[in-house]
Every structure is written in structure tokens, then in C-alpha cells.
From TrEMBL:
GO biological process, one term: response to redox state
Gene Ontology molecular function: DNA binding; DNA-binding transcription factor activity
Purpose: Modulates transcription in response to changes in cellular NADH/NAD(+) redox state.
Assembly and oligomerization: Homodimer.
NCBIfam families named in the record: PRK05472.1-3, PRK05472.1-5, PRK05472.2-3, PRK05472.2-4, PRK05472.2-5
InterPro entries xrefs: CoA-bd (IPR003781), NAD(P)-bd_dom_sf (IPR036291), Rex_bacilli-type (IPR058203), Rex_DNA-bd_C_dom (IPR009718), Tscrpt_rep_Rex (IPR022876), WH-like_DNA-bd_sf (IPR036388), WH_DNA-bd_sf (IPR036390)
All copies of domain CoA-binding, residue ranges: 81-182
This protein's UniProt keywords: Cytoplasm, DNA-binding, NAD, Repressor, Transcription, Transcription regulation
Species name: Sporosarcina limicola
DNA-binding region ranges: 18-57
Compartments in which it is found: Cytoplasm
Name this protein carries in UniProt: Redox-sensing transcriptional repressor Rex
Gene: rex
Amino acid sequence: MIEETPKIPQATSKRLPLYYRFLQNFSNAGKKRVSSSELSEAMKIDAATIRRDFSHFGALGRKGYGYDVQYLVNFFRQTLDQDEETDVALIGVGSLGNAFLKYNFQKNHNTRIVVAFDPKAPNEGKEMSGIPVFHPELLEEKIKEYGVELAILAVPSRSAQEMTDQLISMGIKGILNFTPVRLAAPESVRIHTIDLSVELQTLIYFIKTDEKDSQL
């Protein structure tokens, strides 16, 4: 997980996994060094933003040379703790949850769903996409058994806060929330909310704004 400090802005922290992914792509393609302009073109992020983000970590590159690709891959791997696997619990196996199970994250980085919960699952559990799925009645038992500290929340809005309270009481430290509910939690628990409807509305807004600007 990303260790945020007061020196690293939250916006920069959120871009670190993207830098790591694109730098891995450059490394896999055999590229030895890369400039901020090349990263900018590949990632569609302003080059000045990339240089500013990197400056928070000291001298990662050299003027006139650019950045050593393998050095940056190693640096961001260590910064993001990519050498250590993180197990995740999935709460809710509806359409979205089922998509998560089929994708799973370990294919692309160091996180993986190891256990899931859904009201339609039998108490003895069942397997979906190679992942054991249990009824929520076994939540506390299985969270302890699998030792997970992170959860993906993909449940109906009406049960989101109640489920969050349960997870927190069981020692969960981070929740990736895919419900539109703004969840209440103590400061010691990190919650990231991804509201797909809001993201879509934001996209539509920007498209319409771009169309209006092009007509001026």
C-alpha cells in the first residue's frame, strides 16, 4: 500500500501506481531511459506534473539524460510495496463483484482477492472463479482465517454502512467503496469511494464542455 506523508500530495500518491504500470511497460519493451515528455505522451499527463510529482522523491533523473527506466521501476516497486502481496476480501458478488472475481488483481500487480461474501452463498461456501465465496454470517470467522485487512465493498446502498461497521469491528484497515454512500469511519480506517454514476456524469459534463468550447 502507498505510505502517504505530509510531504507527498494526495493527487501525487494516486498517480504512483500509474507511473509504475507505464514504466513497467517501457521496461518490458526494452527501453533503458525515458524523458518526462515521453511519459507524458504515453500517460496523457502533463510533463510538468510528472516532473513535479517525481521531485517529491528527490533527484530521480538527470537533466539532459531523463530517467533510468529500471531504476524507476525498482524505486516505485519499493515505494508501493510491490514485492509484498496484499490479500483482499470482496463483499458482495453481484454483477460488479462477479466481474472483480473474474478479473482478480494479482494478474496485474500484487493484490489479490482471496475470499468473498454474498447472501446467496451457502454457509459451507462455494467457489467462483477459483475464489471461495461464503455467506456473510461467516464474515468474522473467515476474515480472521484469511487474515485480510483490506476489503472491496460492492453491496446494495442500504447495507453499505452496516457492513462497513462490521468490517471495522473486525480489524479491516482499508475499504474500496463501490457504493454511492459516503461511509462513516474512524480516522484510523482509510476509505476510498468510487461512485461510477458520478464518474460517468463527470465524463459527460467534460464532453459537453469541450463541445461548447470548440464552438466558440
